[in-house]
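Reopening this one. Same input as before:
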Amino acid sequence: MLDVTPIHEGWVLRHDGAGLPATVPGCVHTDLLAAGVVPDPFLGRGETEVAWVGRRDWLYETTLAPAPGGHERTDLVFDGLDTVAEVRLDGRLLGTVRNMHRSYRFDVTGLGGRLSVHFRSAYGEAEAVRGRLGERPNAYPEPFQYLRKMACSFGWDWGPTLVTAGIWKPVRLEHWTTARMARVRPLVTVEQGLGIVELHVEVERPRAEAGLTLSARVGGVGAAVDVVGTSAVVRVEVPDADLWWPRGYGEQPLYEVELILSDSGGPLDSWNRRIGFRTVELDRREDEHGSGFTFAVNGERLFARGVNWIPDDALPSRITRERYRTRLAQAADAGVDLVRVWGGGLYESEDFYDACDELGLLVWQDFPFACAAYPEEQPLRGEVEAEARENVVRLMPHPSLVLWNGNNENLWGFRDWGWERRLAGESWGEGYYLGLLPRVVAELDPTRPYTAGSPWSGSWDHHPNDPAHGTHHSWEVWNRRDYADYRLEVPRFVAEFGWQAPPAYATLRRALPGEVFAPDSPGMLHHQKADDGNGKLARGLARHFAVPEQGFGEADFDRWHHLTQVNQARAVAAGIEHWRSHWPVCAGTILWQLNDCWPVTSWAAIDGDGREKPLYHELKRLYADRLLTLQPRPDGLVLAAVNQSAEAWACRVVLRRMSVEGAVVAEAAVEVAAGARAVGDLRVPEDLVPVGPKEFLVADGDGAVGGDSGGGPGGLRALYFAAADHEIPYPRPRFDVSVAAAGEVTVTARTLVRDLLLQADRLSPGASADRGLVTLLPGERVTIGVRGWETPGDPDAETVRSALYCVEPAR
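Same output, byte for byte:
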């Protein structure tokens, strides 16, 4: 039987003539950090102090003992090398590598001695390739498109420039005799309740004369075939297979697949994975609105409630199985059912996809191309095909994976960002997205759809980012306009949109020790990577709030920090509520972005220290199965009931037109109904539409008004304010605070309290609240659960009050 020996101990990293202890898997940055050679690049401006690391060559070494007897063959296997390196054993060149996204295997039978991996600077390699192939346009001033490496290592508009190198995935020796399974490609389909698994197996065998058998077992059903030559197909049919569903649509049953390669003497090799039976289709048919982009799983069409995923750490070798599970569970708990693995990052580890399988999170997988023109000549073209073939097959078992996407924004860039003129006929990646990659997917994984890019309208007959066709990225709003403008379009599928806010206060305090905070303080500016990011934040706030323009004191910064969080949540809500209310014309939204890779001002819902921003809690409302929303339409104000549950919904709603002082100007009860997986709406009667900045409209679902249940802060509520906050004559907010010993904070409003937020991490860095922004009417109360007190006793009411923020009258 094949035996495995990990090679993770005894490595050293050569630095200035000395040997530093090295952790494998790991990278140069983490080893230098552990040795105290470099500062933490996540703190202060430490990123600039470690910039030299990416410009250097690096050498890793260990001693490899000769393999013990008893096996015919020993292979040295690297699951991942980052990125350009020579691998030598006792001075003998085993091979050269140049792709972070691939694994490598070398025959070392009978060999031993000093094993070395000599990494060349990624900058040096990229610049050399650029010199040979010529300059290509790029959205960022770094040469990341000239080698197959995680693009965001070179920095992004939310990430640091930390150009890594190292043995970033496990390395091992594999000892085997007679034969081994070189590749297993599982095609999983469902036909009339019958679950079918076709295991396409390629066998490596030094001698063809040995008789080999493949046997498989799935769900209590077995099958076996003889191997002819070096390949075979084992087909297993599972009757009455339980279907795997996205979360919210059903259960996620997973079946163990056991595949064994044997000869007359017994087992030689085994392959074990979990699969799920389900079908997936992508409906791109033309209709009266354009051409759609709608996922259907097991025949059920769905509105995708999505988030974009970036690598969860700028040093990705630090991401553990537990961290993947935590972050993805946060997504699921927020109502997310689709995660898009963005193209400037990685094909993630098995741990990521395992968690998605278990949690019912659909995965949209980008191939790693983003925001640049990529040369199609060698040495890149062969690497692109090799990595695509390996990763398509590697990820095929996972039922969560439902889409292969060719690139992020490159087709759009060619058309709109001046690339076509600058390229003057040079290759730029179109041959990958419209030729090579769809061919590889069709050949290896015909069970899943492929799309050429995001955004992409389906063909060059339409603009790549045409909202009426295919996928759309909505960035004009954040870049130049007010978030109310999200309501001006109904794209068929919004694959990117978002709004920035800084991270939690405790995250800032850890990342910027000793900083006197202001939006433009040195540390804040360094941890704001977006082009004119602070300017866009300021202009976005100015459209709604009166904020100081200069001379920030501590109280002014605290107010700015709160209001930017409010604006982020409101902006995302404006988009998602509008787009969900137009299902099935619009069939999905994918927020940019779920997570961060370091502490930074960004579009994330969860910051770089794992703390949940108010946006995260707002997603729970926005992505719930049932949502009430008040939408201004050309023909008047509309109450929409968005129902993504499997049951029809009839909802009694109390509408109250109110003054900001708390008086009810007019009131009525209405019925709104929505079928299963459908939207119902009705016009708000004219006498209930608020007039001027002193009035607003409250819609409370299921007949409950106020309190902690039904409508109000604990239930289905929609609010509509017709004016910007700086025009609204809010009363000075008054509220009572009480603290229970069980870590519960209760706030009772005496006036209208708009967008109240308990920033629990201001009380203790490890503390977190179980809800975000909440608006209270006079007399209403809300109870907020707090976890992670790190004080000797629970804080008193006045201490808690200091961590409570809400929108206040304009000064």
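So the earlier flakiness isn't reproducible anymore. For the record, Residues 554-580 form the longest helix (27 residues).
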